[in-house]
Design a protein that fits this description.
The protein is mainly α and 163 residues long. It has two domains: 58 residues; 74 residues, no CATH class. The protein contains five helices and three strands. Strand 2 and strand 3 form a beta hairpin. Helix 1 packs antiparallel against helix 2. The relative contact order is 0.06.
Length: 163
């Protein structure tokens, strides 16, 4: 007999036993008849419920629908972190630390440009790459605030005074 059939055999035999036993309760003394019958029916329903739960768990394990014990489900309203964004049902936001990191990197790149270490094309490519990434979220105001807050001046040429 296969393992898959074992739970069904147990359930069938228990059902057969209960279908035989419940009518026999009519022969019990009247004072105990209701109590015994009630307990038998409760036990049968409990057995059925436990069998359904076991079957459901077995099916979930087979389909890998069970959650990892270390997983902590949270409401979707708290947001789901994904690829540098936090996804909500109605919007996408950039993670705070990603915005802070870009601002620091942007300031450093502007200083490099002003010192003549990188070209304007390199600075522009860096900014456009960031804008292309964050445009997938609701960041229009953030982009405006970030780019307006830093003034980019052309690099200053180093003058050599010859006397």
């Amino acid at each position: 007999m296969s393992q898959a059939a074992d739970p069904m055999v147990i359930f069938t035999r228990t059902f057969d036993f209960l279908t035989w036993l419940v009518p026999m309760t009519n022969h019990f003394p009247r004072a105990q008849r209701f109590t015994v019958t009630q307990r038998l029916l409760d036990a049968a329903l409990d057995l059925r419920e436990h069998m359904e739960i076991a079957n459901l768990r077995k099916g979930q394990a087979r389909l890998r629908l069970t959650a990892h014990p270390g997983a902590h489900p949270r409401p979707v309203a708290e947001g789901i972190p994904f690829l540098g964004f936090v996804l909500y049902p109605d919007r996408r936001r950039l993670k705070r630390r990603k915005g802070i990191h870009f601002r620091q990197r942007f300031i450093a790149r502007v200083r490099q440009y002003q010192a003549g270490e990188i070209s304007l094309d390199d600075l522009t490519a860096s900014v456009r790459g960031w804008i292309n990434h964050v445009r997938h979220a609701n960041t229009k105001g953030l982009r405006k605030a970030m780019l307006r807050s830093i003034i980019i001046t052309p690099p200053q040429e180093v003058r050599h005074d010859r006397r």
